[in-house]
Amino acid sequence: MTLTLRNIAKTFPGGTRALLPTDLDIAEGEIVSLLGPSGCGKTTLLRIIAGLETADAGASIRFKDDDMTHQPVERRKVGMVFQSYALFPNMSVRGNIGYGLKMQRLPRAAIDARVDEVIALCRLEPYAGRTITALSGGQRQRVALARAFAPRPRLLLLDEPLSALDAALRGTLRDELAALLRQFGITAIFVTHDQDEAMAIADRVAVMSQGRVAQIGTPEALYRAPETAFVARFVGNSMPLGGKIDGGTLHLPGGDLTLNATATGKAAFVRAEDVKITADGPLTARVETVTFLGTHYRIALSGATDAPLFCLHQGLTAPKPGETVRVTIAPHAILTLEPEKAAA
Amino acid sequence: MRIGKALQLAVTLLAAAFLLVPTIQSVLAGLTVNYFQGLKSGLTLKWVIEVWALYSGSIFLSLGIALACLVMTLLIGVPAAYAMARNPGRLTRALEEFISLPLAIPGLALALALLQLYGSYKGFRLSWTFILVGHVLYTLPFMVRAVMSVLAAIDLKTLEEGAASLGAGPARRFVDIVIPNALPGILAGALTVVTLSIGEFNLTWMLHTPYLKTLPVGLADSYASMRLEIASAYTLIFFVMIVPLLLAMQWASARAQRITR
């Protein structure tokens, strides 16, 4: 493993436990995302890896054979892309990108060569001489990435690198960032609260909740086999079905569903795309609202479950609000998990 | 409506005249051969030359003290403002108020305290550095506040974290990041300090010795003991020195404010 984190915890003055003891292993060249809602400890963990925050006693951060637990940030050789980019307004684009190389006391010619190389890689040629204030949000993001990458760090850390951009730009830049990180071939950890972003960029995603890693795995594994109710809800927006599981049957207000296996005492979840409107479905539901979204309709159903149930319906027509429909949920699409604690 | 406009204009012109007429009169008095005979006695630079002969020492002393004061406030004020900007909190607020105290205390009282404390150290008491200490005490809050307001407007902590992640130690970060980004505030503060130091009278009048008269102290001296034309010529010289500084100060603080916003 390239990066080995052991027993990383953070208690802020005042006793708030931002991060509970966490272990994490990251392989060479791997891109790992820390995904979770705000306050889950993901940024704290990233800042501890960067050396911008000190972990509680007993922590260990190792990079290959190098123990960097007690190294200050400036000697860790990690590149960092900040949420606000933190570009230096007193320097040009070139000046920003070359700063880390200057700190390594490289000769002038070597700095220039490397800066040119990174500028070309990030397609920043037209902006090289500009000041930071003359750049758009997307350009700033690329400069921040280029600046962090130029000094050849052994690890690249990105803190919500896309959240400062507007929604339209975010989608394009997400794919661009994913492509650049792969091209760099660098080990990278990036923090986000956006599951689409995590899925699109990362090889592995660590879903975090309340100061701990709830589950870590490939995007597919997290989506298809969530281990906890929180992961099911956060990755892929699974809806709790409610009702009561008795052996291999789920009893709901709108009818009974058959499960793949017995799961007494567990809670059932389903995703909107797995809820089908069919003529012979076992559940009865009333159509509340119908929203046309281009590729599909989003239909809110009541009566089948305690809470409104959403269904992504494909087809040329959709039922009208007020109509009664029959609903099917395939047994394999129902996730049965330990119920969440009330406090969550 | 038109009467209202005319009235506004009249009041403005009157107010301007109230300030301008004595100024022009004073300037002219310094340039006329005999003030009591008026302009018909002719214009001359004689008095200006005489002032230069009598008081050029004061002018150079004032300039010297102002520059020394600037160096001291830069050396003390910029790092102090930086430290306070990086560690906001109750202690910092208290310290800021403490530094600002000399603004609330009359210069005379401050000077008296300095005399009581250091008056018996003859070498120090008779040296120009004694006046310098008074000026630094009085001008330091202006430097600290100007730099702090600019530092508060930029996200200094993240900028420094960015520099640190690129391998810059604390000293490099201060030189490469903090100072360049605080520059508008430093410039505004520097011009304020120089202008205030050159014009400072209250404190300086208490601290000066007959051999150490600054520009304003010399001005008071000339008003008290010289003929009116010489005193007016002195005022003229004072104007010529201080007005460009005031203009530059306005320009610099406007520039610093643009960043603060």
From TrEMBL, chain A:
What domain of life is recorded for the organism?
Bacteria
List, for all copies, the residue spans of the domain called ABC transporter: 3-235
A single GO CC term for this protein reads: ATP-binding cassette (ABC) transporter complex
**One Pfam family this chain carries?**
ABC_tran
* InterPro entries assigned: AAA+_ATPase (IPR003593), ABC_SmlMolc_Importer (IPR050093), ABC_transporter-like_ATP-bd (IPR003439), ABC_transporter-like_CS (IPR017871), Mo/tungstate-bd_C_term_dom (IPR008995), P-loop_NTPase (IPR027417), Transp-assoc_OB_typ2 (IPR013611)
Look up keyword Hydrolase and say if it applies: no
| Any GO BP annotation | quaternary ammonium group transport
The record's keywords, sorted A to Z, are: ATP-binding, Nucleotide-binding, Transport
Q: Report what the protein is called.
A: ABC transporter ATP-binding protein
Its lineage opens with: Bacteria, Pseudomonadati, Pseudomonadota, Alphaproteobacteria, Rhodobacterales
From TrEMBL, chain B:
Q: Which Pfam families match?
A: BPD_transp_1
- Keywords tagged on the record: Cell inner membrane, Cell membrane, Membrane, Transmembrane, Transmembrane helix, Transport
Q: Note the superkingdom of the native organism.
A: Bacteria
Gene Ontology terms: biological process: transmembrane transport
Check the record and name the InterPro entries matching this protein.
Answer: MetI-like, MetI-like_sf
Q: Where in the cell is it found?
A: Cell inner membrane; Cell membrane
Q: What sections of the protein cross the membrane?
A: 53-78, 98-118, 130-154, 174-198, 231-252
Record membrane topology: Multi-pass membrane protein
Q: Report the sequence similarity comment from the record.
A: Belongs to the binding-protein-dependent transport system permease family.
* Record-given protein name: ABC transporter permease subunit
**What organism does the record attribute this protein to?**
Pseudotabrizicola alkalilacus
